[in-house]
Amino acid sequence: MTVNNLSETNSILNHFVAELRDVNIHKDSMRFRKNVERIGEILSYEISKTLSYKKQTIQTPLGYIDSPICEEKIVLAPILRAGLPLHQGFLQFFDKAENAFVSASRQYNADHTHFEIIVEYLSSPCIEGKTLIIIDPMLATGGSLELAYRALLKRGEPAHVHVAAAIASKQGLEAIKGVFPKGKTSIWTAAIDPELDDKAYIVPGLGDAGDLAYGTKI
After folding, report:
1. Which residue from 127, 148, 169, 201 could staple onto 102, CB 3.0 to 4.6 Å apart?
2. For residue 117, what pLDDT is reported?
């Protein structure tokens, strides 16, 4: 499993991540969603550099030219609901991709001291032999990511899996090492944070990405 931490190189990406974390900007849901979308665009561009291409002859108004065209069949799979803004960024670049949708959420007990992760919904095309990009903005424990991946496997075995996250925790990355196929998995993240708190939120993180993007839930 290859881990690509894009924050190791200074770029405008770091600026977008900083705004995601800033409590003074959190009150602006539209800006939060836009920054997540921008991060999705950057992650998709970086992933695109690793894909397979073939030459295709293109006719211009003045002649012909051979241009490299991506030949991989891509399926984008956001984990709902927090994954939707990141997914939108990917759609800006992979506009011809097929799309799968997985709903995986934490279900807390009465006093909110414990939770389990439940997959409630799956809508997916066949992913057999295709390039699967799982979009999960906050890779915390890795639990929702694992369950989403196992649910998607009901639709086939992908040729390669890319996992895209805005922020990942070291613990989450360690937890999924044995889940995804060796040599066929790449992790792409805009930042890696050191720990989780007692509620399994990433620290320093940014809080609940779904709530910040779309408002608090009951």
Report:
1. 148
2. 74
* Cα 184 from Cα 178, distance rounded (Å): 12
CA–CA separation, 131 and 113 (whole Å): 38
Listed residue (48, 39, 46) closest to 71, CA to CA: 48
Q: Contact at 8 Å (CB) between 153 and 132?
A: no
Our measurement of the distance from residue 167's CA atom to the centroid of its chain's CA atoms, rounded to an integer in Å, reads 9
Q: Is the peptide bond before 33 cis (omega within 30 degrees of 0)?
A: no
Residues paired with 202 in a beta bridge:
196
What DSSP string runs through 19-51? HHH-TTTTT-HHHHHHHHHHHHHHHHHHHHTTS
Query: For the whole prediction, is pTM greater than 0.90?
Result: yes
29: Cβ–Cβ under 8 A, 6 or more apart, which residues?
Answer: 212, 213, 214, 215
Q: Is 1 helix (H, G, I), strand (E, B) or coil?
A: coil
Take residue 202 and report the two structure tokens written for it. 């990433």
What value does the mean pLDDT of the chain take? 94
Distance CA 162, CA 5 (A): 13
| Tokens linked to 206 | 């940014």
Query: Rounded to an integer, what distance in angstroms lies between the CA atom of residue 74 and that of residue 95?
Result: 10
What does the alpha-carbon distance between residue 114 and residue 110 come to, in Å, rounded to a whole number? 9
Rg (CA), the chain: 18
Give the C-alpha separation, 130 to 186, whole Å. Answer: 14
